[in-house]
């Protein structure tokens, strides 16, 4: 999750002492003239994008974002950035499975100027109002369609629903130098492309970004080549909209190999981010530690892009880290610790994604606990000190922010959804022991790869794998207004 852990600073003594195109078709150049497909275009074979099939649900925390009426299977995004005019020009091709019959299609979208919209090759009427794109054409349940939206305009960000001091507005942000970067949790993808902007609808992606000579474009997914000044990225594992990223700037590139030869790419700004390069180079070490605990890294590539932010985000395959994250006297390795946290999210949150924002704790609790275990091991802290830190921190955060299983929409990703579920996982860990706990953790992420999960499925998994009933313990830790007393599960 966006970064993070400023509330750990309240509890610093412990840490001081011891969160496309058709695959067979060539990528299109977004700068080339656009032609409108004819209604007689041949039928599209949608089986190529079945790995992007999801079961969207209406999100109760942010009901204005996303919809359960459509399932986007694939986004093909061809965008061009012009720094002198601060103009983004895009062609978004969406392969969509309607979930039910409807008189129109609705997606989240910032009010860019629409330059043309087609559905299955036919020109259709469309409009953007109140950050919703409405396409006036009927659709039939489970009969996939291809929506093409051409647009241009100046990007604008959207407010972050949180009181955290280390976050900025959400979505595509223009830098004073004319570059771009984005972080968009719990929403904000709609600030640069039409999207079903909610976590339950994951999709495959092809992203092509054209920039001026001397500039670099970075996006999530696996690098798929550079043609002229067009940079291409492809995601063959499904991605939630909040986990997509885009950065444009004058970057330096470093490459490395992670465990089992996984290719890693680091992007930083020379003269601005140089002090962070040693942390970037620790990535193979961080990934090796995480693989030892949770099994193989779940994606074909990884990396980090440094942007002009005070936060960080676990964007899939290409972590977005803020260069303004500062170390403190109590946490002198905060940037590296936060980077490990974001890498942990590649397992917890990216490979296994929450069905709705009600279960943000399922991402952040696991990533935070992984971060705490790494800190404990690195600093050689005692088990008792970690127990004390988590229980004392839990008491402070529940009193201030409430229980983690009932998030306040106005306080997104504040400390209770990090530390409180980490304290719960610590209690489960203590009761089942190291061998069983890490076997559970590995099975949770490896056997449910590329799925969406929630509290009920987590409890069912935990009970089935242990042969013990942890229902009361989990519900107490997620719903209690005060730190639960010891609940021993027989």
TrEMBL record:
Gene3D superfamilies: Neutral Protease Domain 2 (1.10.390.10), tricorn interacting facor f3 domain (2.60.40.1730). InterPro entries: Aminopeptidase_N-like_N, Aminopeptidase_N-like_N_sf, Peptidase_M1, Peptidase_M1_aminopeptidases, Peptidase_M1_dom, Peptidase_M4/M1_CTD_sf. CDD domains: M1_APN_like. Residues 22-42 are annotated as: Disordered. It comes from the Bacteria. Residues 1-24 form the signal peptide. GO terms for molecular function: alanyl aminopeptidase activity; metalloaminopeptidase activity; peptide binding; zinc ion binding. The keyword Transferase does not apply. Belongs to the peptidase M1 family. This is Aminopeptidase N. It comes from Micromonospora humi.
